[in-house]
Amino acid sequence: MPSVRTLSKLAFGGAGVILGGGQTVLGTFSQSCPNPQLSCHNTTVVENLCCFNAPGGQLLLTQFWDTDPVTGPEDSWTIHGLWPDRCDGSFEANCDPSREYTNISAIIKSFGKDDLLNDMETYWKDYKGNDDSFWSHEWGKHGTCISTMEPECYDEHKATEEVVDFFQKTVDLFKELPSYKWLEEAGITPSDSETYTTDAIQAALSAKRPGVEVTLGCKSGRLNEIWYHYDVRGPVQTGEFVPANPDGPKSSCPKSGIKYLPKNGGGSQPKPTGTKPTTGVPTSTSAPGTPFSGRGTLNVQVDGSKKGCIISAGTWYTSGTCATFTATSSDSGFTLSSSKGPCGVVGGALTCASKVPATTFTAVDGKLAAGGNAAWSSNKVASGTTQQKVYAGADHDTGFEIVWG
Q: Annotated region Disordered: where (predicted)?
């Protein structure tokens, strides 16, 4: 059901409200929300979006398992984020650029939340070591889209206090979802040699959250993400999180042969999606780790190292914001489009424009392929904002590969 985005203040009370895990939201949020409806299940339009999450009614607590480099404790998954999805699997992103802060750790310290920051420094890790940048990305992209965390929902709002509540609630939820322990109790432990099935992993987690499944993310057959889905009755800060099934088919793991590598150097794990790359950030929460699915970026790899990306017209550069491409499945592969239009190989060159006939691409070992060939080339290496035309095949001087970001 649609919801009217009208934020009407209610009466506020005094002290902070206790969250799960014993932590508190900041002291000025204590709305009275009589008979709150469960998000994604409302039967009437809800006007007060300080008491009801819309349009992002389903909240996803997402976790990483990184092994190369090892990220976080060896016996714990780490936090990816808390994401508000619409109830149909789509989502908003970067809803308030004016609140996209880049000093998250300083904000948290300014409110005296040292315990929260310690938890984040342990369990909310960026695999490149840029934790504050990662936190800024998660808040700016997802946190600003949670309606109950709008500044108007706070009494005598103090600048950035909703940021602290976002991270506190995410950490508290994470502590209630000990993925490593739950899998271990079902005999699913990190191994260099053992493999597991999707059914076994789902059963282990469903035993702790009866009646619902999770989204499993795999990269090259290796388990690296779990998304826990919730509908929420009331505000995110103080409401009831009700376990829910995924709001669409998103899992990207095979039915069997899933590897769950240890965090002790036993194997090479592809880098996870979702952390902040050096040029541009994908705006998709489509299936974690699924190449050429949903929305993402086309990153250029020269000799195995990332060197820039493809921009909206289909050319290559190494400095600036990467274009967002949409991959749409077809009978024998997928098509790509950018803001310029469909993408195809025209006169041997990758081109995206309104009148371009779409080429059906495929993925070969996770790399973009045209006509079954994953080789691409250019007359020279791109430098800065100077664009280079991208040709299908290896006929030009500089060869490279294109991978999904």
A: 245-298
Verify whether residue 157 is a known catalytic residue. no
Claim to verify: residue 139 and residue 82 sit in the same structural domain = yes
Residue ranges in the chain modelled with pLDDT below 70: 1-30, 265-290, 320, 331, 385
Dihedral sign computed on CA atoms, order 390, 391, 393, 399? negative
Domain membership of residue 232 (yes or no) is: yes
Distance CA 353, CA 91 (A): 26
Q: Are residues 362 and 231 in the same domain?
A: no
Q: HEC states along 154-170?
A: CCCCCCCHHHHHHHHHH
Say how many domains are in the chain.
2
Catalytic residue among 138, 161, 213, 225: 138
Name the amino acid, one letter, at 175: K
Query: Which residue segment(s) compose the domain that 356 sits in?
Result: 294-404
Residue 88 domain flag: yes
Residues 130 and 238 grouped into a single domain = yes
The pLDDT tens digits for 22-54 are 445 454 666 778 889 999 998 888 889 999 999
How are beta strands 78-85 and 58-64 bridged, if at all?
A: antiparallel
Q: 80, 150, 213, 225: which is the annotated catalytic residue? A: 80
Q: Is 80 a catalytic residue?
A: yes
Whole-angstrom Cα Rg for the chain: 22
Provide the CATH number for the domain around residue 72. 3.90.730.10
Active-site entry in 74, 92, 137, 142: 142
